[in-house]
Specification:
The chain is mostly helical. It folds into two domains: 42 residues; 33 residues. The protein has three helices and no strands. InterPro entries: Ecd.
Length: 101
């Protein structure tokens, strides 16, 4: 039966696709681990702005490197710095802002 043969072929294709995905997942994890290792030795994390404590009781405590990073503030700051460097010329930051409206 041709229909049955077609189903078997489709199932084999699905199985081969899942095998390819399972082979790429470990490779992706290896790449991510290598990137994490490289970032741990860099000073990049020190450049991020962090949330400031809201209460006065935390002023006496030293600033902890594990404080949460203010992602929104860092994003806006990076985009504004990029726009400044572009000096009114087209570039990634102005293109992103243009697409946002």
């Amino acid at each position: 039966n041709l229909l049955h043969g077609g189903r078997v072929k489709e199932e084999q294709e699905v199985d081969s696709n899942s095998d390819e995905e399972s082979q790429t997942e470990p490779m992706l994890e290896d790449i991510m681990d290598a990137m994490d290792k490289e970032l741990r030795t860099s000073s990049l994390q020190e450049s991020f702005r962090r949330f400031t404590p809201q209460s006065d009781t935390n002023k006496d405590q030293p600033e902890d490197a594990s404080e949460e990073v203010d992602i929104d503030l860092n994003l806006v700051q990076s985009i504004l710095e990029s726009c400044t460097i572009q000096q009114g010329m087209p570039g990634p930051a102005s293109n992103i802002l243009h697409d946002m409206g």
